[in-house]
């Protein structure tokens, strides 16, 4: 519950409140034998710290998640409350956190690792990770590649057309607005239109 409250605070753009909830969650889980749960709490703490601009706290939490998740992959719900936690989730969040901290090169590397680990049938997760990669690529001034990954995310809507994913793709396209006149972005807009996704 504390993790969910931390996530909600981030959605509400209240990063310091998110940090407070994450700190409380870490205190509760510190002695738990549930390693995936400890890793998940550390991941949530890392994201909250990144959003609050607390670089060292973010990196420390990611290191803790690394230690707790070592050798583990998603398991049956009977084995952990955080049964969904595995290497793919950690690398995805690592990429997101490092992008927030504007450490674009390691962020892109982490997100690319996540994409190699996410099963192909998890289309929404793959699409969201591609959109996370876009943000790092923009920071690296790799605009053509950023447009390519937005297009790849849009292609995945043929299998999963959730409203949240469509909104995230539109946000991704907005991130490319400074280059709207380029051929690459015009081609992306055509690709989005083919998927009935209009940049707004």
Number of domains: 2
Query: What is the top-level CATH class of the largest domain?
Result: Mainly Alpha
Shape: globular
Distance between the termini: 35 Å
CATH architecture term of the largest domain: Alpha Horseshoe
How confident is the prediction overall: mean pLDDT? 95
User: pLDDT below 50 for ≥5 consecutive residues: which ranges?
Assistant: none
Q: What's the total helix number? A: 10
- What's the Cα radius of gyration? 17 Å
Order of helices and strands: HHHHHHHHHH
- Portion of residues in beta strands equals under 5%
Biggest pleated-sheet summary: none
Helicity level: over 70%
Written description of the protein model:
- This protein folds into two domains: 1-117, Serine Threonine Protein Phosphatase 5, Tetratricopeptide repeat (Alpha Horseshoe); 135-200, no CATH class.
- The chain has 200 residues and is mainly α.
- It starts with a helix and ends in a 6-residue tail after the last helix.
- Helix 8 packs parallel to helix 10 (183-194).
- The longest helix has 17 residues, at 35-51.
- It has helices at 2-11, 15-29, 35-51, 55-69, 87-100, 104-117, 123-139, 143-155, 163-175, 183-194.
- The protein is globular.
């Amino acid at each position: 519950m504390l993790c969910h409250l931390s996530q909600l605070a981030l959605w509400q753009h209240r990063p310091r409140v998110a940090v407070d909830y994450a700190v409380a969650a870490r205190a509760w889980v510190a002695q738990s034998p549930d390693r995936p749960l400890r890793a998940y709490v550390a991941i949530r703490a890392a994201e909250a710290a990144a959003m609050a601009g607390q670089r060292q706290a973010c990196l420390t939490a990611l290191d803790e998640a690394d230690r707790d998740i070592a050798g583990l992959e998603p398991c049956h719900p009977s084995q952990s409350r955080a049964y969904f936690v595995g290497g793919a989730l950690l690398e995805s969040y690592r990429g997101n956190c490092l992008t927030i901290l504007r450490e674009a090169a390691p962020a892109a590397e982490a997100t690319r690792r996540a994409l190699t680990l996410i099963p192909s049938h998890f289309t929404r997760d793959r699409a969201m990770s591609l959109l996370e990669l876009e943000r790092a690529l923009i920071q690296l001034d790799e605009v053509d590649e950023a447009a390519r990954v937005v297009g790849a995310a849009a292609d995945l809507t043929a299998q999963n057309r959730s409203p949240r994913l469509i909104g995230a793709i539109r946000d991704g396209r907005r991130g490319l607005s400074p280059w709207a006149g380029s051929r690459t972005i015009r081609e992306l807009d055509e690709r989005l239109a083919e998927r009935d996704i209009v940049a707004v």
